[in-house]
């Protein structure tokens, strides 16, 4: 089975090395990893702007795969990368298996409060809000309930792992997702 490897690793200076490591883990479990930077199954028309060609290539990759594993480690804030979440939602909408992992084990509320600092304040009802009186999600989940819920509803798993060193290159939770996905075949 071809598996789309979604995540913000595409922004790393050694993205292709990280992709190769992930692909080796997939292959060891009988899966074929497909990384966003791989040549797409079909080229986007050259007249499109570069950013749209990237989008179309990634969508083509997703549609060509039977499942998706998303790196949902917080990216530039307390939540997962928005592009990765979109890709996960697209695959979920196609009715295919999705898995997710995060190399930050703390629940979403705690990360959000830490991110907001003194702008996070307690409510009289025991919940939390930000400086604009918008409530903070408190379900004990790894991220926004729509992310955790989509993975759960698809029969997938959301693996949490506290990376001790490099959160972008620690593949412990990723490998747990690969094992679970391979067992589902």
Helix content: 25-40%
CATH topology name: Rossmann fold
Give the oligomer, counting copies of the same chain as homo and different chains as hetero.
single chain
Question: Rg from C-alpha positions?
Answer: 17 Å
Can you tell me the CATH architecture? 3-Layer(aba) Sandwich
Separation of the first and last Cα atoms: 8 Å
Number of helices: 6
The CATH class designation is Alpha Beta
- Unreliable runs, pLDDT <50, ≥5 residues? none
**SSE succession:** EHEHEHEHEEHEH
Using the alpha-carbon principal axes, give the shape: globular
The largest beta-sheet arranges its strands as 2-1-3-4-7
**Structural class by helix and strand composition:** alpha/beta
Organism: Neoroseomonas eburnea
InterPro entries: Nucleoside_deoxyribTrfase
Protein name: Nucleoside 2-deoxyribosyltransferase
Pfam families: Nuc_deoxyrib_tr (PF05014)
Walk me through this protein's architecture.
Helix content is 38%, strand content 14%. The chain is α/β, with parallel strands linked by helices and 185 residues long. The chain has a single domain (2-107, 142-184), classed as 3-Layer(aba) Sandwich (Rossmann fold). It has a five-stranded parallel sheet, with helices on both faces. The relative contact order is 0.17.
Q: Which key phrases capture this entry?
A:
alpha/beta; 7 strands; globular; 185 residues; five-stranded parallel sheet; two-stranded antiparallel ribbon; Rossmann fold; 14% strand
């Amino acid at each position: 089975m071809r598996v789309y490897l979604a995540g913000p690793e595409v922004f790393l200076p050694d993205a292709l090395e990280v992709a190769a490591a992930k692909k080796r883990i997939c292959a060891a479990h009988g899966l074929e990893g497909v990384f966003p930077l791989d040549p797409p199954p079909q080229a986007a028309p050259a007249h499109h702007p570069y950013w749209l060609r990237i989008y179309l290539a990634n969508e083509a990759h997703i549609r060509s795969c039977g499942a998706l594993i998303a790196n949902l480690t917080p990216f530039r804030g307390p939540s997962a990368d928005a592009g990765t979440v979109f890709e996960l939602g697209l695959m979920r909408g196609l009715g295919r298996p999705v898995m997710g992992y995060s190399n930050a084990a703390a629940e979403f509320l705690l990360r959000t409060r830490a991110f907001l600092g003194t702008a996070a304040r307690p409510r009289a009802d025991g919940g939390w809000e930000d400086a604009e009186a918008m409530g903070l999600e408190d379900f004990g989940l790894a991220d926004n309930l729509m992310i955790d819920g989509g993975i759960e509803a698809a029969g997938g798993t959301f693996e949490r792992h506290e990376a001790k060193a490099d959160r972008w290159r620690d593949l412990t939770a990723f490998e747990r997702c690969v094992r679970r996905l391979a067992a589902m075949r």
